[in-house]
Each structure stands twice: as C-alpha cells, then as structure tokens.
Write a structure and sequence with these properties.
The chain has two domains: 89 residues, no CATH class; 83 residues, no CATH class. The chain is 70% helix and 2% strand. The chain has nine helices and two strands. It has a two-stranded antiparallel ribbon. Helix 2 runs parallel beside helix 4 and helix 3 packs antiparallel against helix 4. The longest helix is centred in the last third of the chain and has 29 residues.
C-alpha cells in the first residue's frame, strides 16, 4: 500500500483497514457536523433526546461516531448530575476481529472445509447406481427364464422342454423295440396272427 492509498484510509486521525470503512467514517463525519449545527447545548434535555435517538437507531457504527457519542455522554453527565445516562453500545466483537485481522497466517493453516458435493455429481452417481441395479435385474430375469425349475416366468418353456424330452425318450425306446423284434424275426403281422390264433383256440 503506497502513501496515497494509506492517506485515503485515514479519517479524523483514525486509519481504517479498507476503503469501505473509511467511506462510512467520512459519512459519519458529515452526520456529526449536521447534528452540531442543529444542537443547542443550552438545553441538555434536547441534547439527551438526540443522544438517545442516535443510540437507539444505531446511526453511528465507526470510531468517528462513537467518539462523538462519547463526547455527548460526558456533556450530559456534567449537565444532568445524578441522572442515569445511557452507555454507548459497541456492536462489534473487537477481540475476534483483531485476531482475524492480525493473524492472516492462521487463516492459511486452517483446515479447508469440505465442499458440498455438487448436485451434478450426485445425479451422475444415481444414474450409475440405477444402471447397475437394472443390470442385476436383467441377469436375474435371464437366469430365471433359463432355469429348469418351473416358475411364473418360465413355466411354459419348462413344460415344452420336458415334453420334448419325453417324446425323444419314447422314440428311442420304440426304436430299440423295433430293432429287437427285427433280430428275433418278429413282424407286426406275425404278432397279430398269433394273437388271433390264441383267441380262436380258446
């Protein structure tokens, strides 16, 4: 900070840390001049009314205004002995403010707060999870459809497969019987005639 910038931050002997506070102090300096032009110190009650209103409405927030209020307070204490004069409230925690202002290194070493996960990342994770679950459902459906145990999904397929197996088994047995008959010189006609002879004989 150069000398010119530093001088711009000085108001009525107070050096402020930033331009915003310095501007607020200059504004309060104008307010003080306006009040002084209208105050009649010959009437302490009038001064006290303005003093109380300034505190109640928080007109002053910088050392410029606080200094002026403290001046009015001393005047009222002298002019109205025995009466309770309101204290000047300071709406600021100076110890914490001084620590943060004089210890920038402390701010640098403070652990970084975990940033909330962006909604876009959460949405992407949800999509991936949904795809994974859908894949599991499809695999289970395929296993169920191809399984040998009958269920509501593959009942018809299982019955068809079993019928085909039975039909093939019967065909194989019939083939074996035919081959056996052929090897024994047994024909369907001879079998039929022997059965008829047996019936007529009885």
């Amino acid at each position: 900070m150069n000398t010119q910038d530093r001088e711009e931050l000085i108001v009525d002997g107070f050096q402020f840390s930033n331009e915003r506070d310095a501007q607020a102090a200059k504004s309060e300096q104008d307010k003080v001049k306006l009040l002084e032009s209208r105050l009649d110190y010959a009437y302490p009650d009038q001064v006290r009314m303005i003093y109380d209103k300034a505190i109640q409405n928080r007109i002053f927030k910088t050392p410029i205004g606080y200094t002026y209020l403290h001046t009015l307070q001393k005047y009222l204490q002298d002019q109205l002995p025995g009466e309770e004069i309101r204290s000047v409230p300071l709406f600021m925690n100076y110890v914490n403010s001084m620590r943060s202002a004089t210890s920038p290194a402390r701010q640098r070493v403070e652990p970084k707060k975990a940033e909330p996960e962006p909604a876009e990342k959460r949405l992407k994770a949800a999509h991936i999870l949904n795809i994974f679950l859908a894949g599991i459902i499809i695999v289970m459906f395929i296993i169920t459809m191809n399984g040998e145990t009958p269920n509501i999904l593959n009942y018809e397929n299982v019955l068809v497969n079993r019928y085909a197996e039975w039909d093939e088994e019967l065909t194989q047995r019939e083939k074996v019987i035919r081959e056996k008959e052929k090897s024994l010189n047994i024909t369907p006609e001879s079998t039929k005639s022997s059965v008829e002879d047996h019936k007529s004989g009885t």
